[in-house]
Design brief:
Aspartate Aminotransferase, domain 2, four-stranded antiparallel β-sheet, about 475 residues
Length: about 475
């Protein structure tokens, strides 16, 4: 492909992208293909000769697109959102064009300094104290791993990095029983051992019980373990429960434990001053993460990770072979030493485009709408006798189930709701997922896709009620 062809096909792709957004509501939200359908249409061996771009696009449309689940569809109410927006997409195009590897200041000064500034903006926008310093990670899973590794090294004066775990004791980590699976994965990768993760019981709101946390810590101390860190959740994946940060922070302060906060989805709500109650107690937090790529209309991947002690972070990861040394040294941020990855994408550009295009007020308006529409949806569920709310909805996720009169056997209800969810998703108009709360099969209705409007919520409710009538 030469430059002239690149220009022509690039314009064609922009047209394709615009038409995709224009017509996305006519597509099924969830792909309906069977396992192996795409694979069986792909040649077993790579082509030996060049192929025309037209052929590539034809196969993309005919083979790939039927197998795509459309996360940007306004009928997306599954998992959590992974949003994009027009300015974010355009910024990604520029990022791809530049092809910069932004591991250090020298390799792209503008990328480093833009990241520094937009993270300062995000800290201000979300009400974090000025003592926190931000860096962009790829995902909250990576940020949690980075936090626990930093906690490990900080507690041992960086001895494990030098000589390993031998003779250091058995460290224990704490999170709620509703916490994300990425915490368990980080515990395994960091070498603590899965058996040394304590999953603390939750209250009726599905938030961590501080008294149970303190009891577990004291029990481990008596057994000779070394309590190290607590991971608190602001917005658990199942029900978006909010752990009591102030009480947990006081316990961590008392026992000198590291405190990491996982606010992957819900953290975006802190752009709204009325939701900053969620971080009451932030003064005792060591690290904090939320994902603009979930609810802040910024393409995946872009995870905002904030640290109180950047020196501990850098010392945990810094390795400086001769070929990475530069004359700027400590005068600049070299973000290669702020996490697991040496190579880094220019993620700050899309965040900059999004913040400047929407403005803080525009972002706030969208998020407030999502929360208001979710609250309306929860009201509709509560007022319909055949449904049952199963958890509070402090933000924009509603947990509920179908519960017809006279059906009280939990196993029967679980089976009924599994079939109910399958019927909803087979409609191809909306897509939802489930969790289990207290053993109950629970439908999760998430509001937050970039292009979702109130009429889409009304349409979803009509679909849900129509299918429920057939299920009785």
């Amino acid at each position: 492909m030469n430059l002239s062809e690149f220009r022509r096909h690039g314009h064609e792709l922009i047209d394709w992208m615009a038409e995709y957004f224009e017509n996305i509501e006519n597509l099924p939200v969830k792909s309906g293909i069977l396992p192996g359908e795409v694979l069986n249409q792909l040649p077993a061996h790579p082509p030996s000769d060049p192929e025309a771009f037209e052929n590539l696009m034809n196969d993309f449309n005919e083979i790939i697109m039927p197998g795509i689940t459309h996360w940007q569809h306004p009928g997306w109410h599954a998992y959590f959102t992974a949003n994009n927006s027009y300015p974010s997409i355009l910024a990604e195009m520029l990022t791809s064009t530049l092809g910069a590897q932004c591991m250090s200041w020298l390799t792209s000064p503008a990328a480093t300094e833009l990241e520094e500034r937009v993270m300062e903006w995000l800290g201000e926008m979300t009400g974090l104290p000025k003592g926190f310093t931000g860096v962009i990670q790829d995902t909250a899973s990576t940020a949690t791993l980075v936090s626990l590794l930093t906690a490990r090294e900080n507690a041992t004066r960086f001895a494990i990095n030098r000589s390993g775990f031998y003779g250091k004791g058995v460290f224990t980590i704490y999170c709620s029983s509703e916490a994300h699976s990425s915490i368990e994965r980080a515990v395994k990768i960091a070498g603590f051992g899965q058996d040394n993760l304590r999953k603390i019981e939750v209250d009726k709101l599905f938030a961590m019980k501080p008294e149970s946390l303190e009891s577990a810590i004291n029990s481990d101390l008596k057994k000779g373990f070394v309590p190290l860190a607590v991971v608190a959740a602001i917005g658990t994946t199942g029900s978006t429960a909010i752990d009591p940060l102030k009480e947990i922070g006081e316990i961590c302060k008392k026992h000198k434990l590291w405190l990491h906060v996982d606010a992957a989805w819900a953290g975006t709500a802190m752009l709204l001053p009325e939701f900053r109650y969620m971080i009451d107690g932030i003064e005792n937090v060591d690290t904090f993460v939320f994902n603009p790529h979930k609810w802040m209309f910024t393409n995946f991947d872009c995870s905002a990770y904030f640290v109180k002690d950047k020196g501990a972070l850098i010392q945990t990861f810094e390795i400086l072979p001769e070929y990475l040394k530069t004359k700027e040294g400590s005068m600049v941020n070299n973000y290669r030493d702020w996490g697991v990855q040496l190579g880094r994408r220019f993620r700050a550009l899309k965040l900059w485009f999004v913040i400047r295009t929407f403005g803080v007020k525009g972002l706030q308006e969208k998020i407030r709408n999502h929360i208001r529409w979710a609250d309306e949806f929860a009201g509709w569920v509560e007022n319909e006798k055949t449904f049952e709310i199963l958890a509070p909805s402090p933000l924009a996720t509603v947990c509920f189930r179908l519960h017809p009169a006279g059906v009280d056997d939990e196993q029967q209800l679980n089976s009924l709701n599994a079939r109910f969810l399958d019927e909803i998703n087979q409609s191809e108009k909306i897509f939802m997922t489930h969790t289990k709360l207290n053993g109950k099969f629970t439908l999760r209705f998430v509001v937050g896709q970039t292009n979702t409007e109130r009429h889409h919520i009304e349409k979803a409710w009509e679909i849900i009620c129509g299918i429920a009538m057939r299920m009785k």
